[in-house]
Design a protein that fits this description.
Elements (H helix, E strand, L loop, with lengths): L1 E4 L10 E6 L2 E10 L6 E6 L9 E8 L13 E6 L5 E5 L17 E10 H22 L7 H7 L3 H16 L4 E3 L5 E3 L2 H17 L12
Antiparallel strand pairs: 1-4, 2-3, 3-8, 4-7, 5-6, 5-8, 9-10
Helix pairs in contact: 1-3, 1-4
């Protein structure tokens, strides 16, 4: 279903299914050496690949660490592919930097995970990633340099960012909820309402990248 290219290396085709029903896997993995160093990965659909309706392919990466934690390195979300976006270049983290400013010696294998997930699950992660990227770019080009303490005080955690995005979506979608008699009267939200929220959220991020840093943010 998928293939991966690391610039300067042979195309990766040895995909492994790691989860899902027999004949219908939903999670896949590629593994490749950390060295030689790389900064980007290209992930794309093979010809004929079509994802199930209302799903996306979430891309995660696990990179070995110079000082590994007891639980091992975590998977980091890179972005997603969809039927209308069958390929993309993703920015992968480079080697860690030690206190002296040089590159730490890191060896081992990188795992690139691909997970077929509902769009409702993937979209907030993509929005959070884009918001963080916009905030980082704004900080790096600022005319006034901030101290590490000031940057730390201003930065918001991924957890808080995700909570604000989810809260934002809930507030928007709540007005579109209706009772479903066929499902014990549980409230449901039309998929189109979620798509409308996502389009509106994307426009807001482009116009005001830092709005999620403000607690009173609303769409």
């Amino acid at each position: 279903m998928f293939s991966v290219i690391i610039p300067g290396r042979p195309c990766l085709t040895d995909i492994v299914a790691v989860d899902g029903q027999p004949g219908q896997p939903t999670k896949f993995a590629f593994t490749f050496p950390f060295s030689p160093s790389f900064s980007d990965v290209v992930v794309f659909f093979l010809p004929g690949t079509v994802l199930p309706q209302d799903t996306a392919a979430a891309i995660y990466i696990q990179i070995p660490e110079s000082n590994p934690s007891p639980n091992g390195p975590e998977f980091r979300f890179l972005g997603a592919l969809a039927n209308d976006k069958p390929s993309a270049i993703f920015k992968a983290r480079q080697a860690e930097t030690n206190l002296s400013g040089g590159s730490a010696q890191v060896t081992g294998m990188v795992t690139l995970g691909i997970s077929i997930e509902p769009i409702q699950t993937v979209a907030p992660q993509v929005a959070a990633l884009e918001a963080q990227s916009s905030i980082s770019q704004s900080s790096s080009t600022a005319l006034v340099r901030q101290s590490p303490q000031e940057r730390q005080q201003k930065a918001i955690s991924t957890k808080v960012l995700a909570q604000r995005i989810i809260g934002n979506a809930f507030n928007f979608l709540a007005s579109f909820a209706s009772s479903d008699p066929s499902n014990k009267g549980q409230e449901v939200v039309p998929l189109k309402s979620f798509q409308d929220w996502w389009s509106k959220f994307e426009r807001r991020v482009q116009m005001d990248p830092g709005f999620l840093e403000r607690e009173e943010s609303n769409i």
